[in-house]
Amino acid sequence: MAIPVVAIVGRPNVGKSTIFNRIARERISIVEDTPGVTRDRIYSRGVWLNHEFSMIDTGGIEFADQPFMTQIRNQVDIAIEEADVIVFLVNAREGITDADERIAQILFRSHKEVILAVNKADNPEQRQDIYDFYSLGFGEPLPISGTQGTGLGDLLDAVVAHFPPEVNDEDDQSIKFSLIGRPNVGKSSLVNSILGEERVIVSNIEGTTRDAIDTHFTDETGQEFTMIDTAGIRKRGRVYEATEKYAVMRAQRAIDRSDVVLFVIDGADGLREQDKKVAGYAHEAGRAIIILVNKWDLVEKDTKTMGEFTEKLRGQLQYLEYAPIIFVSAVTKQRLKQLPEMIKTVSENQQRRIQSSVLNDVLLRAVAITPTPNVKGHRLRVYYLTQVAIKPPTFVVFVNDPDLFHFSYQRFLINQLRDSFDFSGTPIRLIARKRK
Ligand code: GDP
Ligand code: GDP
């Protein structure tokens, strides 16, 4: 479940972003290949030789107004904090610089798995010269070229060979969830209030995953939960945590590891751009989502306030129409008791399986209500509907011509599915395939 993380570090201009983008684009198949994915430039997830991993380009986290070495130091600290394997990138054309040596020292002290890659080794002569880099102390340097795309397969082979042994968590029946939201919306307060509930029993099992910062607890029904990344919420104070890109990357990592995402909004303050970005990522990753409007105690209310707030929010987050909204307060603990039950419900919905026979009854009825569209004289025909996956529920509909299966009819069918079964809190995917 906790997939390994790879970070690329090195001083500016050695080619970190070039390598990151090349690997993300060509060398690994992106897991979430739904159209319109908001892919952040510094964080990506993929697979190499059946090993799933995520990857961070530390160079993408910039620290304006800070001295050169401080910037690099922050980036290397992030890599050490976040990654299982670090790719230390240097430049074949420039040889070893002072900054390279400083980075090497920091990495060396971290005792992390480090792979030294020498970029810009574009031709055989340059590949000859890389042996100087042995003196950095990280073993055999791997020659690569970001512009030519050479050496990347060997690099990825070395990377996956250094992954920590897989943790077998098949016995783990817990529902994994995380709290996501801008700074100051009240995430850590909510965490403390949830764990402070008397009916919740916290049992932190250390050392079972690399992210031993997770919190495990059981509710009164015996359901187990794992709260992801609470230390990321609680520990504070390092400089880089203030940068938005770091915060977004952190949130994306937590989302990747979660089944359910609690998307926290400040009820007194409303929705901002940064909120939408992270919510969009959770949606596209197929996570179940509950929207928590926090600090509801601060809002002056009458009988209409909740309805109006809901309507506005639905307008701003149209693609999250399926996500339940709950108005809470970390301070007064209003409605927090309901939360474990809600998390459980959306998690169940996310794993719901519907038999094909039942699905095709729904399909027949749907087509009877709203006949399939006619596009330039060609009528869409839908033959058969079947569920192919859960987490999120994914359906394949066999049609005569997928090009005729437009967005509006797709939406209509998804809505029919939502009307017929309880999929509240979970995204649904619908894929059109040509019937052979
Ligand atoms: P970063 O600051 O470390 O992220 O570096 P960039 O990825 O932005 O690359 C810096 C410059 O080096 C860009 O102009 C790239 O086109 C160039 N570059 C990256 N990889 C290679 C390479 O393998 N060979 C050559 N010749 N140039 C490269
Ligand atoms: P985080 O950055 O998202 O973890 O936010 P914090 O939990 O640190 O909360 C930020 C500030 O909002 C703190 O001063 C909290 O005391 C306050 N706060 C959090 N939740 C609530 C709430 O439900 N009601 C009120 N009135 N204040 C809250």
From TrEMBL:
The gene is der. The keyword Repeat applies. The lineage of its organism: Bacteria, Bacillati, Bacillota, Bacilli, Lactobacillales. It comes from Lapidilactobacillus achengensis. GO terms for molecular function: hydrolase activity. GTPase that plays an essential role in the late steps of ribosome biogenesis. InterPro entries: G_ENGA (IPR031166), GTP-bd (IPR006073), GTPase_Der (IPR016484), KH_dom-like (IPR032859), KH_dom-like_a/b (IPR015946), P-loop_NTPase (IPR027417), Small_GTP-bd (IPR005225). This is GTPase Der. NCBIfam families: GTPase_EngA, small_GTP. It holds the Pfam family KH_dom-like.
